[in-house]
Amino acid sequence: MRRFLLTLLLLTMTLPAAGCWDKTELNELAITSATGLDFKDGRWLVSFQVVIPQSISNQSGSSSGAQAPVMVFSTEGESIRGAVQRSSFEMPRALFFAHNRILIIGEEAARRGFSQMIDIYLRNPDSRETVSVYVTQGTAREVLEHLIPLEKIPGAAIGNLIKNEELNGSNFQETRLYQMAMKMTGEAAAVVVPEIFISGDNRQADSLDSLKRTVAGSKLKLNRVGIFKKDKFIGWMKRTDAYGLSWITDSVKKTTFFFGCAKGDEHYQASLLINDSKTRRTPHIKKGKLSVDVKVRAKGTLMENNCITDPSRLEGLRELEETAAEEIKKRIMEAFRTGQQMKVDVFGFASLFHKEFPEQWRGLKDQWEEQLAAMTLVPAVEVEIDRLGMSTKPFKKLLQTGNEGSQPTRQETTTEGR
User: Fold this and answer.
1) How many CB atoms lie within 10 A of CB 313?
2) Per-residue pLDDT, 151
3) CA 20 to 30 Å from 108, out of 54, 235, 270, 334?
4) Which CATH superfamily, name and number, covers 241-394?
5) How far apart, in whole angstroms, are the C-alpha atoms of residue 306 and residue 270?
């Protein structure tokens, strides 16, 4: 009995000794909100945007002695991981990447290839493979240094920027690192990454004084998309082509689409808010020739009509719908021709043919660039304007006639011939 009590006492005494032997306090960490990758003079340059907690928690407003919400510093090395390791030479806290949302790649580093960075993110548990990836024509560090109005943390602001565009504009799509890895190792081995660049004078964009003016001297903007073949950057695709790419890949969620008053008219005077869109792609092989049918169906609300065409009449409504459909078809073909010229399958057609024709794919995959260059795209677009807004007749026509007259509703128009 005495031995049992002694053993129980010893076990009880060991309980307080149990604890977190490898704990790390919050005040020992440097929270990283964004990371940049550059290549300069034969060495990798990694930049870190570190959050300053005491500045973020200050809600009293800005003052002459206010501190910037983030600080940016860079380290360099012969390898990317070696550059990251050197951060301990100048940072009193350990870098914490769990809240890192943004990875920006400079053009020089992108042309060099950044498979090292992908390997680091996929291999290390302290990195997030869900970070959003961007490419910039200049250096990534300059982008990280830029402060953004309305948001205290620039890294979070950049993430919100692409999400807002993806949901409301559909010109660009957010590209996460794990998506890049999957597409680079897929059949097409190609991926598009949105470009972010500094527009305007960047001399004081890293100072709090730049946020005290009503007009910003410079701002961060989305512009083009960078095309990557495997892990290397090969060129740029302009914004209008990126928009056509969104239609081809069924990535249009919500967008305001502009078109002219007649087919082929590039003087855009009408706009349509697309709130429902679906793209179906069907691959074909006939007599050894490849083709893809791209069928687009879109519905939306007429937001602007500076044309004489009267959408309150059925023939006028159909004319606007056909004009809008023709403009979408034009954007699709321009994007497709750009991809053919760059010899890169950013459309994902390779996976379509692999899935639909697995036997023929064995003979196609080794010469896919040549097959893509000879491929035919057959677009078919159907646009339906389901709402005309609060006004039906175009105001421009009312000015010409000088008589407002009656304004039939959309229901009267649809029951007339639909």
Assistant:
1) 17
2) 82
3) 334
4) Nutrient germinant receptor protein C, domain 3 (3.30.300.210)
5) 6
